[in-house]
Amino acid sequence: MTSDQMIETNGLTKRFGETMALAGLDLAAPRGTVLGVLGPNGAGKTTAVRILTTLARPDGGTAHVAGFDVVGQPDEVRRRIGVTGQDATLDELLTGRQNLIMIARLGGVGRHEARARAAQLLDQFELSDAADRMMKTYSGGMRRRLDLAAGVLTRPPVLFLDEPTTGLDPTSRARMWDVIRRLVADGTTLLLTTQYLDEADELADRIVVVDHGRAIAEGTPRELKAQVGGARLEVTLSEAHPEAGVALDPLVSGSIDIDHDGRHLRAPVQSTPGLATTVIRALDQARIAVDDVQVRPPSLDDVFFSLTGQGVRP
Amino acid sequence: MTTQALTLTRSRAPLAGRLRQAVRDVAVLTTRNFVHLAREPLRLSDVTIQPVLFTLLFVYVFGAGIAISHGSYADFAIAGLLAMNLTTSAIGTAVGISTDLGTGVIDRFRTLPMWKPSVLVGRSLADLLSAVLCTAIVIATGLIVGWRPDASLASTLAGLGIFLLFSYAVSWGCACLGILSQDAESAQGLGLIILFPLAFVSNALVPTEHMPAVLRTIADWNPVSAVTTAARQLFGNPNPSASIHAWPMQHPVIASLLWSLALLAVFAPLASALYRRRTID
User: Fold this and answer.
1) Are the CB atoms for A304 and A312 separated by under 8 Å?
2) Domain range holding A283?
3) Is residue A198 part of a domain?
4) Do residues B226 and B198 make contact, with C-beta atoms less than 8 angstroms apart?
5) How many domains is chain A built from?
6) Using one digit for the tens of pLDDT, what is the confidence trace for A22-59?
7) Which of B21, B108, B280 lies nearest to residue A90, judging by beta carbons?
8) Which of A95, A252, A312, B250 has the CA that lies 20 to 30 A from A211?
């Protein structure tokens, strides 16, 4: 391995009883980059993060963070990482400020410096008004931001965010993205897990798609989206029509998937202005009645569909 | 990677630095436990309300039916009530630790370069201070119901010191229970099952001479009896156990210290090992 990989795993395996959580996962994030680990629930994302942050031991393979082996030199790893987990990992009975000061002190920051950094981060993450309230009164978005603040208190060179926006409303999500973007602007190496393609697209330099504990695709967001075909077209017909596929074929950029009832058609498309109008016009000319036409950005489901030929596992 | 890793490993903080870090981690976590108590004062009921209640109940209900030679039941009972309250309130350590282990905060601690046992030490120190509070409340209630030490202040304080040391040692045993329990409720239940017999099959509240032979032997060798007897001796209070030939009753101070140190020597390392095992997956 080269010293420039801040996060690197090779053939990582982890088994929980009968379940193979990781089945030989390879990840790499060079210094100063954002690696998005994209996958459905149960793909092994959290297990990978837990191993990389010294919370779990791998059964096989190796994992290095900032050049240190997570199993052999866990304290060296801990000195260099910040973590924000999926679940709240702070103290419900302390205030936001008390939590941050406590974590900073335990991370080796001096008393005065800990106070100063806590105040600064509370301000930066828009938590100043709630700073002196017990954390158990915080909303979901506020908890996530406080957890993230706790993760960056010691100014770690490597940061792990495990599904930082899962369960947040769109506004809180956009706010969280802003905060994350500002954090990585100063050269922090970030590993971010997510179930949302748009999130990985917004934040990551490279994306690894994970399923059943191994990487099934890797590339820049642009490369992955190209593989999926840009956008997705979804058409709902009033009733099944044998000519519908033929009518749509010139407008789409891949194969058309028709539901067994014949009324729902889906296909990758290159999103162009007026596409929905063009689609309706083409179907109308073929005398096919349409109930609904949607053009939407590709989702994780679409990525999975194009990679595996199946949707996301339930 | 190897060269970078090696240099950084070598430049790791020296022993003094790591010691300072351990002290700081313990201080930070002890403070955290205090903030918890301030937020939820009802958690302190077992060291505030319960001691008052037990002292009044035992002195006025049981005391009415138990005759103590060379003194009043109150003079006899306060040392025993201290022993009983301090022993049973150690369940708080078990509950506190299992509560912590059920929340995500321990995961966060584990990703920090902390001195690992500081979570346990911080808890034990906070609980030691609740034990001091418990002691003060029993003593105050005792003075109100007529208990008087008949010894020098130094000797009386030494008696209290023996209790606190013992209570600290027992809390490490409770820490083990807390780590082994699935949740706070089972920690509480397990603690009661173990600590109540320990507190009651002793000379704390009644003289052992009229107990059945087996119970009497257990009671005479029970560490709770040793500390109670030591305290009665140091307080200058009635001490019926002085005539019992079992070694701990004849040398209660040494026996108390030995018991406490033995419990600490077993349970402190055991708790650390159990904690390490519980927090790795």
Assistant:
1) yes
2) 231-296
3) yes
4) no
5) 2
6) 999 999 999 999 999 998 888 899 999 999 999 999 99
7) B108
8) A252
